[in-house]
Amino acid sequence: TGARTRPPGHPTVALTIAGSDPSGGAGIQADLKTFAALGGYGCAALTGLTAQSTTDVTRVLPVPADMVTAQLETLFADVAVDAVKIGMTTDAAVARAVAAALRQLRAAGRAPYVVLDPVMVSTSGHRLLAPDAEAVLRDELLPLADLVTPNLPEAAVLLGVEQARDDGEAADQARALLKLGARFALVKGGHLDSAESVDHLAGPGLGSGDGSDGVVTLAAPRIPTRNTHGTGCTLSSACVVLRPRHDGWEPAVREAKNYLTEALRAADDLVIGGTGTTPGP
Ligand code: PLP
Fold it and tell me: Where is the Pyridoxamine kinase/Phosphomethylpyrimidine kinase domain (predicted)?
């Protein structure tokens, strides 16, 4: 299955398992654009639909779990994916279906890189994940993840603790996520009120040099823009599509974060939603 050997230099085949954002800023739309911008070939299996503008989510509809299973089994029977990003999983049944399909893939001896972006609530405050799915994320999807990329509120929910209030606590939570089964954890500090965007990446061999679990700090300038919708989706997709080109997660995550910083710098050139549209000629 997917058995033909690819020629050298072939694009990374990257799959996003996530929800749709019709406004094109987040969800599978952001994931596919990121894959393409970074030279990958994008595949997408949908877990849910949203009705959404650039500023608001008005409705979320899960895809039936057996249809999620059908999408993944049909795809995996044909396509050898190199990299998988899991985004919004919508509800507990869908999250379980995604986990089962990935376990089956691993049992068949296939081991694409897996990044889990544990999407829970949109920036606009709308729930994108049913509350009873949080335990499925923690117990079934996290142990399948080579890298998990929570923001501070998501890390707190996964760990069952208070949200980190400073960089020290964020670093501790990144380390704690490894104990839940993720191989690497990137806790994103964007919700902290600091001049820089500081993320903490924990994993074996990082910062310590002796193979034990350590943490490295990734800092980037905070870009003054209101167009931040979909930054989490973009970062996790960039991490996974770039991973095969690097010999570890740290350099892949660094390149992904640089890509996101440049995308944010360019964001104010875009006039997409709200009252910004100008009448045609
Ligand atoms: N819609 C979908 C389908 C998403 O997956 C996400 C986030 O991951 C969002 C909306 C929310 O994006 P944001 O919180 O950046 O507005």
Answer: 21-267
